[in-house]
Amino acid sequence: MSLTATTLRLAAALAAAVALFGGSGAASAGSIFLTGHDPDFHAIQGGHAPGAQHINQAAITFITDPAFNPFVAAAPKFLFVESKGTIPGGHVQGKSGIIASGYADGAAFDHHDFTTLNAALDSLGTPGGYSAIVVASAFGGILRQAELDILNARAADIIAFLNAGGGLYAMAESNLGGTGLTPGGGHFGFLPFVVTSLQMNQNEEGFTVTPFGESLGLTDDDVNGNFSHNIFNGTFGLNVVDFDNLDNIMTLAGRIQISLPEPETLPLLALALSALGTVLWRRRRMAV
To answer: How confident is the chain (288 residues) per 10-residue block, as mean pLDDT?
Structure first.
């Protein structure tokens, strides 16, 4: 393909990206918080539990802010997604970290695994149902492939819920660790526009919170002192919350409208979004 043709196709894909992430005319926008940290685990284990708890609190406050989430008044609980099976070595039940962060099981949230998850997803945004979704980490929480596959299969329903103003918080997804709970992959597949997340185990040292992250109440101290398990290679219309010490994107958050393109346009759109995110990220870093 010629350079001119490639440029034209990329421009078209970028135009589609603008449509994908909506504009000021959107009536509602989903509140989304995605992180490569696993604060469900580190809220109770690791080097810095208070920092992990603060990440959970900032994320859940963001996705359940009643000024943006219209479902909170009639559905104050959030849906917590995690396996209820045997806890492998090196993992904890992430629900315990959510509780340690100040959220009571049965009062602030309900815990569902693959056996009840489809029914729970049916009640998103309904009175007495759920105003937000919180997805446990696959390491060191115990999100397993069975739960992830259901979330991915219900992507259209989740996106419709987000476009109506619902919230979603998802923690680290990779197949790292000795147990490999998600060997089938599909990480963050319930949000198809998140086209590049990479597995990466690393110590949290020298991580930095952006001004946007600071606006959520987070500090550099909160994102250091534990471990993390994936990074993002684009922004996908969201805001960067923190970087690792190599300037990789650790956490993204924002409020956006999502309209999915036709399947045949997804590969080009993925390329365009990744390129656009990289350019914007580099310009932002150079301006600091």
So the answer is: 37 38 55 98 97 98 98 98 94 97 98 98 98 97 98 98 98 88 96 88 97 98 97 96 97 92 52 53 53
User: What number of residues does the chain have?
Assistant: 288
